[in-house]
Amino acid sequence: xxxxxxxxxSRKREEGRxxxxxxxxxxxxxxRAGYTQGEYAKLIGISQNSxxxxxxxxxxxxxxxxxxxxxxxxxxxxxxxxxxxxxxxLNREIEQGE
Length: 98
Fold this sequence. Notes:
Layout: H1 9-15, H2 23-32, H3 37-44, H4 48-55, H5 63-73, H6 77-84, H7 87-95
């Protein structure tokens, strides 16, 4: 399955939906890449406190942070979709024509 992570930011905000982070998948990708969470946060341009709030679902990742994550962790778009958008959720939206 090909996955594109282009989001109409204003539409998502209006509908109350955002990035559906799978925090354990992101933590695993950070470890696989050989980084601590603090190192990863610095590399994508946020503080460790900001990363913690994102991992706990208190704040969403921005599209720029998702792009930097892909580059820093050297992961492909498919894994980005699994981590940030939840493949099952994305498939459901495509089937419903959203």
